[in-house]
Amino acid sequence: MNAPSDNNEVEKFSLGGGHGGYRGTIQVGLVNNMPDAAMRATELQFARLLKESAGALDVQLHLFSLPDIERGEVARSRMEGFYADTESLHGTGIDALIITGAEPRATNLADESYWPSLTQLIDWAESGTVSTMFSCLAAHAAVQHISGLERAPLEQKKSGIFTAARVGDHLLQTGMQSRIHVPQSRRNAIPEGELASHGYRVLSRLDDGVDSFTKAMPGHSQFLFLQGHPEYSAEALGREYLRDMGRFLRGEVERPWVPENYFDRATENTLAELDAQAKGPEDLMRYNEVVMSALPLHSWHGHTTKLFGNWLASIAAEKLRRRAPPPPFARSCGLKLPVFGPVSRVAGMPQSQRFHAQAAFPATEAVCI
């Protein structure tokens, strides 16, 4: 792939500690569809994760947004020079995408104003990327578009830090513990049985459903779906709770649930006391003081860094595999065989990333018949 075409009007961000070399540069596009208030925080969360997990790999981050997402004047002004429309993705040489969710406005995702643009992006990503990661609502939208499976509403919003168990062995789970903590913030889910019947492979499972899953697409891209938010910073769930509490105090929504397994018991008790006393928007400052002074440990950060590091390493290995010339026996026999690069190509890789490349370059025997 060629590098994304230079555009003096749009910035890109270099992450990681590599300098090209054997693996080239991984071009990652972040399609940030979050509402204006969360847009900057989402940028930082994913940028920091990519930087911390890149290791010796070169990573360049490019920012995109769906053109149909409603934006205020301040957000549009800040995006100028940093964001491009997803319509400009074609032919740019982006290797991988991270597609975030958006604030839902319709019960059925197909009724959202951005649905046509999002489904076009999903179709392009199937053959236009090495891998694409879908976060939360974007994961639900992608599964609905690809397989016709609609998400099912939960009895109550799933918000907090939950334990997920690893399911099987997958390259993306290399070096990860069997049980990990994952932030969740959603009102919907896709049943595991329906995913399995449509060829999705579950990677991690919560006590009451699926956390993450993957699918190899016919266009040769590996799609990764995250129903949770492993990218969340330590304060993210607390800020979401304050946002929803503000809406409740203004009479716009029902009282939000306190995120589970997020605050210590003393903080939960203090918030319960505030609930009994709060009367209107003027009480939000008291909630803010309690929440922002009681942030939890970032217990999921190490697991998330490994997941993103494995994801980047798998992309680098697949890029090498696709660049490698076919073995001599395949050329001489005229056979249409999978293209495998020599294992010696990975000799210069860091040990932590060599496993992925060797898995991408399996040994074969030359057989001409």
What does this 3D model show about the protein?
It is a single chain. With 369 residues, the protein is of the alpha/beta class. It folds into three domains: 241 residues, Rossmann fold; 57 residues, no CATH class; 34 residues, no CATH class. The protein is built from eleven helices and eleven strands. It is globular, with a radius of gyration of 22 Å.
CATH architecture field of the largest domain: 3-Layer(aba) Sandwich
Average pLDDT level: 86
CATH superfamily of the largest domain: Class I glutamine amidotransferase (GATase) domain
Helix and strand string, N-terminal first? EEHEHEEHEHEEHEEEHHHHHH
The CATH topology of the largest domain turns out to be Rossmann fold
In helices, the fraction of residues equals: 25-40%
Number of domains: 3
Label the structural class. Answer: alpha/beta
